[in-house]
């Protein structure tokens, strides 16, 4: 594609510059390259009558057709195409110089958004393919190299920036222009303190202000030579400045309280300015009043030295002036007062040798506005109202809440060594009366029914009543308790019968209080009247008596005033308990009566059966409790244990049988007795089991050890004898299972040692005679098997001996 660089819509193209692209690597000497305006012409070529265009060809943009043909044979050709494009060339316009002020940091650099110049650079060109970039040098702009960032940082002074516009479709279509950005120092209006001037004696509220004295505050660390400072009475004028037509204030400036607006601007660029404001004040001049000499009462030591609260004189120094900014201070010298130094602390210690004190009154808003005055102290002796102990009295029996108090009894405490002849002491119902010396109370004073009641004491000098002191104490009328009478406390001894027991008298409190409030009164108990009167050695609970019969002393006292108390007594006594021992166990046979005897010598009896006699008759086992009482009402309880026995019931006999000599019989019995067991009703054993028994017939006897009777039951042990001797001597000639006749339906089989059945014998017969088919069997071991009809079976072996 070929382009034009003239914005008339048409351009002359040198088509021959495209030959090298058409040829590629082919030898130019071997080919002809021709350009046509249509595909048909390109295909026809010169040989076909078409006319190629000249290499220098003028066009407004079109498609060109290229024909490359063999120089010796034009029919050997090929065609291609390319476009001619005429692109617009941009024209960059130079923006006006940008003059900016530094920001408030005055760091000498500023960020500039370069896109703000785009419209000026384009100057109305609207082609969307025009692209603007900014560069730091002409070379960079020409080469479209190192474009500046969108936000570009400039320094104090002049910075030249180069703007480039190019056509994005053809970057060779470009235009470059330059413009300047000037960064000036920003003026900073620093904070200015208020400007105060003390008014003159006229206090007319007007004074002359030298505003230029504030320049140094406005400038701060800035160089004065670089800035211009002006003062105005409005923000609007300060924003205009003299450069904008506003008139700055003349110096000195005569004014009352006002707000002043300051403009500071850079001399190089008045647009680089800043403003602030401050207040000017004409402060009122205070006029010190002069107090009269001050009479001070000495402290109780009457040492001629006294601490004085100086603030009490402020009102006289102010002399009616009400400005809240006026401050009063006190000094030891005129110089200190003038310089407002070494102000005296309050309270301040003065003495008879203290010279004049100097008071200074100044305007707290402006310390230079002040006046001073002076005055003296005169110290007079003063009494001390020493502390008085509170007076407490017990009420009379009527408990009406009022008693007569002799207030003069407190005089000595109030004086505490001071000369009574030098002072007068009075008593008053309130602090105000004591301070005013009014409504003095009589020395013999009936207290009010409000308790406690506060009485205020005033002691004053006989020569100067202004020198006085007060104190106070209370009058308390305490309620007088009355001790109630408690019943004697009697109790039965424990099982030790040692005459000593533990007592808890807290249950007696209600009797001693006798309706009086337990919250107001305390009850204690003592072993002597002296201890009860003094409240000493109160008993703790539980209390162990020291003798069988004893007197206890109860004390009831007022919780507020323990001097208000009363006492009463009651007795305590420990009675002996009757002695009775447990009995038993006593064994009886069921249904047989037995007499239980608790023993004689007791006042009454109570059995657990409900009977109340010395003896009772029982015929059942169990524990029988009997409680016996003596004449003092004390009781003891014993238990008589009765064991009930009875003849046994044999439920069954368990038989372990079919053994030679290790068979067992076990009697299973029920009953309440203690039983023993025998096979001959002569020799008995505790166990119901008999071991190592031979087969045969047995009787088991069960006897109650307590003599309540004997029962028996027969038992049979079935088993094979260990051998037999069939030699016809009349002894052991046959072998038969012992007692097998008791099981007549049993089947009995005899085998030789090899398991051959030799004989089946009848349970009801005499047994086996030792023959097989009529022939004697040899001496040997033989085996037997017994099968019972219930499915059980047992087997064993025996010996045949000849």
Labels describing this entry:
mainly beta; five-stranded mixed beta sheet; four-stranded mixed beta sheet; about 10% helix; disordered N terminus
Question: Secondary-structure blueprint of this entry?
Answer:
Blueprint: E1 11-14, H1 19-23, E2 31-36, H2 39-44, E3 56-59, E4 62-70, E5 77-84, E6 98-101, E7 109-113, H3 118-122, E8 130-135, H4 138-142, E9 151-155, E10 157-167, E11 170-184, E12 195-198, E13 207-209, H5 215-219, E14 227-232, H6 235-240, E15 253-255, E16 258-266, E17 269-283, E18 294-297, E19 305-308, H7 314-318, E20 326-331, H8 334-339, E21 348-351, E22 357-363, E23 366-375, E24 377-380, E25 391-394, E26 404-406, H9 411-415, E27 423-428, H10 431-436, E28 444-446, E29 453-461, E30 468-478, E31 489-492, E32 502-503, H11 509-513, E33 521-526, H12 529-534, E34 543-544, E35 549-558, E36 565-575, E37 583-589, E38 594-597, E39 604-607, E40 615-618, E41 622-629, E42 635-645, E43 649-656, E44 663-670, E45 675-678, E46 689-693, E47 696-704, E48 710-717, E49 723-724, E50 747-751, E51 757-762, E52 771-772, E53 775-776, E54 780-787, E55 793-800
Parallel strand pairs: 6-11, 12-17, 18-24, 25-30, 31-36, 37-42, 49-55
Antiparallel strand pairs: 1-3, 2-4, 4-5, 7-9, 8-10, 10-11, 13-15, 14-16, 16-17, 19-21, 20-22, 22-23, 26-28, 27-29, 29-30, 32-34, 33-35, 35-36, 38-40, 39-41, 41-42, 43-44, 44-46, 45-47, 47-48, 50-51, 50-54, 52-53, 54-55
